[in-house]
Amino acid sequence: MRKSIATVSLSGSLSEKLTAVAAAGFDGVEIFENDLLTSPLSPEQVRLRAADLGLRIELYQPFRDFEAVPDDVLAGNLRRAERKFALMERLGADLLLVCSNVSAEARDDDALAAGQLHRLAELAAGFGIRIAYEALAWGRHVSTYDHAWRIVERADHPGLGTCLDSFHILSRGSDPKGIEDIPGEKIFFLQLADAPRVAMDVLQWSRHYRCFPGQGGFDIAGLAAHAVRAGYRGPLSLEVFNDVFRQADAGRTAVDALRSLIGLEESAGLAALPAPVVPSGFAFAELAAADTEPLRGLLAGLGFTRSGRHTAKPVELWRQGEARVLLNTAGGHRRDGACLAALGLDTADPVAATWRAESLLAPVVPRRRGPAESPLDAIAAPDGTELFFCGTPQPGRPGWTGDFTDLEDTAAEPIGVTRIDHVAMTQPWHHFDEASLFYRTVLGLRPDESLDLADPYGLFRSRAVANTEGTVRIALNVAPGPGDQELRPQHIALATDDLVTTVRRWRERGGAALRIPGNYYDDLDARHALDPQTLAVLRELDILYDRDEHGEFLHCYTPTVGRVFFELVQRTSGYRGYGAQNATVRLAAQHTGQQQPA
Amino acid sequence: MRKSIATVSLSGSLSEKLTAVAAAGFDGVEIFENDLLTSPLSPEQVRLRAADLGLRIELYQPFRDFEAVPDDVLAGNLRRAERKFALMERLGADLLLVCSNVSAEARDDDALAAGQLHRLAELAAGFGIRIAYEALAWGRHVSTYDHAWRIVERADHPGLGTCLDSFHILSRGSDPKGIEDIPGEKIFFLQLADAPRVAMDVLQWSRHYRCFPGQGGFDIAGLAAHAVRAGYRGPLSLEVFNDVFRQADAGRTAVDALRSLIGLEESAGLAALPAPVVPSGFAFAELAAADTEPLRGLLAGLGFTRSGRHTAKPVELWRQGEARVLLNTAGGHRRDGACLAALGLDTADPVAATWRAESLLAPVVPRRRGPAESPLDAIAAPDGTELFFCGTPQPGRPGWTGDFTDLEDTAAEPIGVTRIDHVAMTQPWHHFDEASLFYRTVLGLRPDESLDLADPYGLFRSRAVANTEGTVRIALNVAPGPGDQELRPQHIALATDDLVTTVRRWRERGGAALRIPGNYYDDLDARHALDPQTLAVLRELDILYDRDEHGEFLHCYTPTVGRVFFELVQRTSGYRGYGAQNATVRLAAQHTGQQQPA
Asked: Rounded to two decimals, what is the model's pTM?
């Protein structure tokens, strides 16, 4: 189906918005009146600009407070409408959105509303324009889609139809199934917006917190499917009011937006995409730093062995059990010290995975492969981390480790690390929702609920995505505000089957976990009544503790190098979380550590 | 009354918080459990630190989900409580806050709740500890203060009282008058927090949007007065959960917090302050710049005459009618170009005004007065702007203009500017609520409602403060996020009685107003049906138009120099606003102007 977006969904001037919408690949736009009023371009110039960019102007909006008014008010409203029709002629727009009246002048009289809308449609017809009537969730007398439709039906004018908006419908708890009772040709327009499920004033919710389909809590795909079953054949159009998107880069938001519509078409069964190839594990995590010496020391202490060197690049492979960490010394341009540059994902079919990623607008990272290297496809995640699709080695197709020559020069005694349990990455403040949609649609990972975590200097939000087996888990965090790179820590959590033994071994070779305050253990005692011996060991080793209905979680942290630190974790009996309960203590301890002399 | 604040209200580590609270001048603190858990200080060390700082630990909190539970759960809860009592002994805290149970295990049984709270109070008594029971607004069975009090009354233990929290009481719409029916000695604690009046889930509202008394929409002073009339003699204690305060500088937030309590004591009739001396007009606005040449050109074009030079400082006085602008060339350290450095306020009694400001913790600006200069007291506003209290000249007390020697060297023909109508200043993102409380309490100005204004690159919030006569008006704006200085424009609005003539004269001497898009005027025609001639003149001169129920507003803008621009305004028939309707158009036009070659 055609794909469109309202200009109000993006940041910038009208001209910037049109450029971003076209570059992302949309077919059309809704022109939001304020964007035109504030533009130095005349309507004719906007029409030309849109045409040059290959964008159809699907709709002009909004026209407010028109129907069900006394006669003297109607005269003024018709005059106002006529001015807008003249404008739309210049703009080349042939569909006007009329929102249900919110003013005190409106009467609760469907016959009056229908009659006046008929008259408006008749006037519009003279300009070659049609009218799409929409129920605002906070409309004075008309606030549900079925009520708006009854009025349109009663008005009975070929140039008058209804506009459905998923936010207005779902935020009121209306059942979208009734959409199928509307003749498809009378659904003139379909606006799609998701939103987090929060209990708040619906006007505030609508104006500030909408998001793209798949980023909130509503079933937008289901709603769109109802409209298509009803016979709707117009565009799928995004209309999102969001305080964050208003500030973010328009080009990037437009891509995020189009990805959400492509994903929606798939979910709604309206279009087929290459099936997701859900990664089955972490092949590696790659750290980059201009000076990798501190990371080498840390990895060696943690029982990793430097087992290989890339044949063509300044990259080392460190491993322990199934945990593999690459150290890339070609990170001289990175001023922020060590950072997580890439993740390798075990992928049954890398070609299919890349194909899906491309169809969902994920940027494919330009190849820098030497002639003898194994093919390795990579895409860029929203925070810039490169994601490599690593295929299982097969006859005739060497695995990615084939590009490394064997080394055993620093063979260390392992301390019990078995694999990478999860990685955590702090996302750019403006792109948190983009990230969770990206991992869900592109990689087929399943998102958890969002959590608020208290850092001493502000609240974090955190949301994890994982595969069904829990063998790939990525925690996406977002810092309290738009900040600098150094405020965006990243970490790699390493699994062990026996954390106490692992930590003791680490200590024997000089390791020291992040110090946890004694008060934390007093509270642990009060809350969980652990046996005194266990508690004493946790306290001694600075190990944190959590439990859920499935099992227990033990974890501790290394010092931070650049933006990166490691976590050592032990899950028992199917514990599902990430120790969120303890995040505040960990964050405070990290701040304390930074304030103390090393 | 003693003044206290909960550590959760401030940003940082426990140690930083205690320091900030003491430095601001509070008498005590509530220790919020998470702040202790995350601190490397032992309870004994915290006790010593507080004592050294002269702070009393008024309360330890919160203890959750205790009462009205089955017997087996009670045993665990009592064990948990005993651990906390032991901790409080080490901490030197003798009052524990118990919040009404929110867990699914709680029963709706007042007798059971009362009996178990009695048992808890008995256990606490052995540690010399008392219990303050509080109804959370989202408590499972106990969610109102009168219900909590009935349970406390029924439990009938001398060591058990109630804690009143203004947020929990007012957010539910309870009538606080009933507080007077509680014996004062049974009100063990009084927690104060304000909040903006928004319709949203009460838990979210409470956890993220609380603010200090006087910064929100509730009558906190009235509630405190009820408690005092009931006989409450404990501290007034602030407990504010706020996402912004969590990020802001703790020292500064603590001062803002204490100012709110001082103002509350005055409003509630609990303490007397020097009466406010409301300013009656703008004596001057002072602009500072390393290079004032662009400002000189702008002022001369606008019909200002350079009429004086300061006898001792590199400051010029420019005037037209009663509008006075000072140009300070000692601004060489200001990298951000021209900025608004100070405002002079006509003040009947500068000494009394300064006295009040000091009693409300406003920083008095160190004097840099020469021996022959007139006395001029100044305080610093939250954004750093200096506010000078300028007394009316009297025999024996020369006015501030006496420090300027007369000049008429650039005598310009006036263009009709009569006085300063208002000034607008963009506030630091973390300190918007602080600013409106400051202007209200320190200067006695009256705040308007907050408005959201759409800039192409994000939403602004704006709130004006003014005196009753409308002769001093200050618009406080806050940018979309924590940003740089240059993103914080400031402007001075100059009044005229005939804007069209004023703009024509300005044009004759080469002035050019900010270009307003033609689309704006088409829309003005559609909305207001102005007569075609008027509309044509507005369009020709780039004048914006607004109206309210009182009158009309015409305004236009100069180009921006550094962070500063001027507005020319004409109010008719008592129009009260600031043309907020047009802010989006103006902001977009300013962005457009910056993107085009000058």
From this structure: 0.88
